[in-house]
Amino acid sequence: MEWVYQCRNLQEVRDQIDTLDRAIVSLIAERGLYVQQAADFKQPGDGAEDSKRRDQVMRRVTRLAGELGADAALTAKIYREMIGHFSERERAALLAALPDGNAA
Which intervals hold domain Chorismate mutase (predicted)? Predict the structure, then answer.
């Protein structure tokens, strides 16, 4: 990435990493809010995880990682974990919305 700020010392590097960490965590939180909105459109009893959509996202982020110079394996690992986490939360919310609180 040629547009990365060229730090003059270790403290500047750490400051830049801290700034990125804040942005990454903020984006994860924002993504979680959109996942919740998606869950709101689903009916209780619908599957929380859409494997077609998951596969589409995984292909897209792996391609993006290559285009942007990120480690594709690490990116895929992070996204698998994040999607799994959000899917589990969505599944629990959908189960809780069922009349008896249990899967059909």
Answer: 4-94
How big is the CA angle at 51 (ends 45 and 56), to the nearest 5 degrees? 135
**In the chain, where the domains are located:** 10-97
CB proximity list for 38: less than 8 A, separation 6 or greater: 90
pTM for the model: 0.81
What is the C-alpha to C-alpha distance for residues 36 and 26, in angstroms, rounded to an integer? 15
Nearest to 94 by CA among 44, 33, 38: 44
**Secondary structure (3-state) at 8:** coil
- Contact in structure between 95 and 52 (CB atoms under 8 Å): no
Tens of pLDDT along 9-23?
A: 999 999 999 999 999
